[in-house]
Design a protein that fits this description.
It is a single chain. The protein is an all-alpha fold. It folds into two domains: 49 residues, Arc Repressor Mutant, subunit A; 134 residues, Tetracycline Repressor, domain 2. It is 77% helix and 0% strand. Helix 4 runs antiparallel to helix 5. The protein starts with a helix and ends in an 8-residue tail after the last helix.
Length: 194
């Protein structure tokens, strides 16, 4: 029975992630979730408990998936610049298919969720920081900018594109252009020229 409940819980969490992506925090309710997940509402409450717990699980599962995707790229790619190109594509997909834009409103409504999310976020940032440091060590990334600053720049670009409302090709082109500018600006120049 436990594995059946786990499978249902996973389906519900995936459904919540999709509802958050499409409608934000306020654009759906538990009736919508039950219908889209194909469950009776009372079954839904037995499996998930509170909406707060469900939202936390949805955010943390998305972060785990994103972290795993980033780690896969880091581990698979021997060529640093190929890994950078793949990560740029990955970030575009994460922004385009994500619900992170609603996380601040979730924190306002459910402040207890923020601590666990911030702890999970640290794991992702540690991986990115180590990747940037590797680029510095092999001479491909400028050494005059700390990894934390570079991550702040990346997060600034991501946050900006959450807010633009761009979609489709316009989003892809604009986001890719911003990422290309970031990557180009971070490359170490020949003869130490910046």
């Amino acid at each position: 029975m436990k594995s059946s409940n786990d499978a249902i819980r996973d389906r519900v969490i995936r459904t919540v992630r999709e509802l958050l992506r499409r409608h934000g925090l306020k654009g759906w309710n538990m009736d919508d979730l039950a219908r889209e997940a194909g469950l009776a509402k009372n079954t839904l409450y037995k499996i998930i408990g509170s909406k707060e717990s469900l939202l936390e699980q949805a955010i943390l599962s998305k972060m785990r998936d994103d972290h795993a995707h980033i780690e896969t790229i880091i581990q698979e790619e021997q060529d640093y610049m190929t890994a950078v190109a793949r990560m740029t594509e990955c970030f575009a997909d994460l922004v385009k298919n994500n619900f992170d834009y609603v996380i601040p409103s979730i924190f306002l409504e459910y402040p207890d969720i923020e601590k666990n999310v911030r702890n999970s976020r640290k794991e992702i940032l540690t991986s990115l920081s180590a990747f940037i440091e590797r680029g510095v060590e092999i001479g491909l990334v400028r050494d005059d900018m700390p990894p934390d600053f570079i991550i702040d720049l990346l997060e600034g670009i991501v946050l900006h594109y959450y807010r633009t409302g761009l979609t489709g090709d316009r989003f892809e082109m604009s986001f890719q252009c911003a990422m290309d500018c970031l990557v180009h600006g971070l490359k170490k120049r020949e003869n130490g020229l910046r």
